[in-house]
């Protein structure tokens, strides 16, 4: 089977981006990764990335052959500009605009723009991100319409034919766990459960059945609820 060439995966070290990386490794002949340090409160996610990448390589010879270089980009500007619960040590609350204060304005827009610039230089024609508007916090920069509009803008502005792929866009968290199972079996599910990081507060003290985290923040609650639904679904089959 001939595989399309050239994907750049936005890889944070979390559940969604790890699943997206596995998805890309199944579909593209050459896959590279990019991460962003933007002064996030849960910066521990950056420390788990190298180990996850090593495990992805060890998972299969095909994945190892396809997985290329990783790049870490300093986007500290986001942390300097924003005043959010993702970049400040403040309580997570809902705001008057109906969005949680974990929303970092412009983050995904800037991530995709920088990724497109790197892809241009690296000769990659697909960007893969874990954006989702099924189980999510209402972030406007995770919506399908946003990604489609951004794809048009990037291609117009760079005279390219980049494709923005969001394989999780219409999946809930239980389906995201199932996708990981379909892509890499129990090994990938356990890798995500034990080694990926999602908790907004950056806590990795206790390993729950669904993974490490505080167990209370929106990211932990969503991940745990999805995992339990995934397990319940497996038992009912």
UniProtKB/TrEMBL annotation:
Function: Catalyzes the ATP-dependent conversion of 7-carboxy-7-deazaguanine (CDG) to 7-cyano-7-deazaguanine (preQ(0)).
Catalytic activity as recorded in UniProt: 7-carboxy-7-carbaguanine + NH4(+) + 2 ATP = 7-cyano-7-carbaguanine + 2 AMP + 2 diphosphate + 2 H(+)
Enzyme Commission designation: 6.3.4.20
Protein family membership: Belongs to the QueC family.
Cofactor: how and how many bound: Binds 1 zinc ion per subunit.
NCBIfam families: 7-cyano-7-deazaguanine synthase QueC
Protein name, entry field: 7-cyano-7-deazaguanine synthase
Gene: queC
Entry binding sites for ATP: 11-21
Domain of life: Bacteria
Organismal lineage: Bacteria, Pseudomonadati, Pseudomonadota, Betaproteobacteria, Burkholderiales
GO molecular function, one term: ligase activity
Enzyme class of the recorded protein, top EC level: ligase
Pathway: Purine metabolism; 7-cyano-7-deazaguanine biosynthesis
């Amino acid at each position: 089977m001939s595989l399309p060439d050239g994907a750049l995966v936005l890889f944070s070290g979390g559940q969604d981006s790890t699943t997206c990386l596995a998805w890309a490794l199944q579909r593209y002949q050459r896959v590279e990764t990019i991460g962003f340090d933007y002064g996030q409160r849960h910066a521990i996610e950056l420390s788990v990335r190298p180990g996850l990448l090593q495990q992805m390589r060890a998972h299969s010879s095909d994945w190892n052959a396809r997985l290329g270089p990783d790049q870490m980009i300093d986007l500290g500007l986001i942390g300097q500009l924003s005043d959010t619960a993702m970049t400040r040590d403040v309580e997570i609350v809902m705001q008057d605009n109906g969005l949680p204060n974990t929303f970092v304005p412009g983050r995904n827009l800037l991530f995709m723009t920088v990724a497109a610039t790197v892809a241009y230089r690296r000769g990659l024609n697909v960007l893969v991100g874990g954006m989702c508007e099924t189980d999510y916090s209402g972030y406007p920069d995770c919506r399908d319409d946003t990604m489609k509009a951004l794809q048009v803008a990037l291609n117009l502005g760079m005279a390219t034919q980049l494709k923005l792929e969001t394989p999780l866009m219409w999946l809930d968290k239980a389906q995201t766990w199932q996708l990981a199972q379909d892509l890499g079996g129990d090994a990938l599910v356990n890798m995500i459960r034990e080694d990926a990081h999602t908790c907004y507060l950056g806590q990795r003290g206790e390993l729950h059945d669904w993974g490490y985290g505080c167990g209370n923040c929106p990211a932990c609650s969503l991940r745990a609820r999805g995992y339990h639904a995934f397990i319940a679904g497996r038992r009912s089959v």
